[in-house]
Amino acid sequence: MPAFDLYNANFQEALVSVGDAASETASGSATRAAANHSGEAATSVVVDTRFGAIEFHWDKAIYMPIGVLGFPEHHVFGLAHLPHDKLSQVKLMQCLTDPNLCFIVAPYNIDSGAIAADDLNRAAASVSIAEGELAVMLVVSVRSKDAGDGIDMSVNLQAPILIDTGRQTAWQCVLPNEAYAVQAPLA
């Protein structure tokens, strides 16, 4: 069973500052200009997510040059805490250019050993992430239990998202080791 560290320093630095912006957007997404209204570029975007309106700051956005698997045309994402205490172990990875595209992700504790350090190091080197700049997220799947009695959550260990926290870029890498479960249970 993988262990997850929500206080991974690299991950926390990559996490956006968010605010409740329910009253600031009427549809899809809206941007807010700088406070001085001097014609400067917008500093944040409010996205009407399936969890409510959330403000993402552009200076904390993460750029994914090749997108997420299955969504190569989407490149800019923000990370946010979910507004529900029961979901504190997972985060929202929201596309900032398409309010309909988001993923639930879990910060991965690199020291847990659920993914071999050598495999992560090779993947990080393949996308030029410097030592000490790596944060790892795992995509979460949420499914209803067969009896309709709650939900089951699992993570994809075979295709982690590697974040270069220094450059605010990320790549989803498919690890060549088939021993990693695509649906590892999340406690």
Protein described:
The strands form two sheets. Strands 4, 5, 6, 7, 8, 9, 10, 11 and 12 form a nine-stranded antiparallel beta sheet that branches. A three-stranded antiparallel beta sheet has the order 1-2-3, with no helix packed on it. It is 9% helix and 33% strand. The N terminus is likely disordered. The chain contains two helices and twelve strands; from the N terminus they run H-E-E-E-E-E-E-E-H-E-E-E-E-E. The chain is globular, with a radius of gyration of 17 Å.
Low-confidence segments, given as residue ranges, are: 1-7, 16-37
Q: DSSP strand (E) fraction?
A: 25-35%
Summarize the biggest pleated sheet: 9 strands, antiparallel
Radius of gyration: 17 Å
Number of helices: 2
SSE order, one letter for each helix or strand: HEEEEEEEHEEEEE
Shape type? globular
- Overall strand count: 12
Distance linking N and C termini = 8 Å
**Helix-and-strand structural type:** mainly beta
Determine the mean pLDDT.
Answer: 81
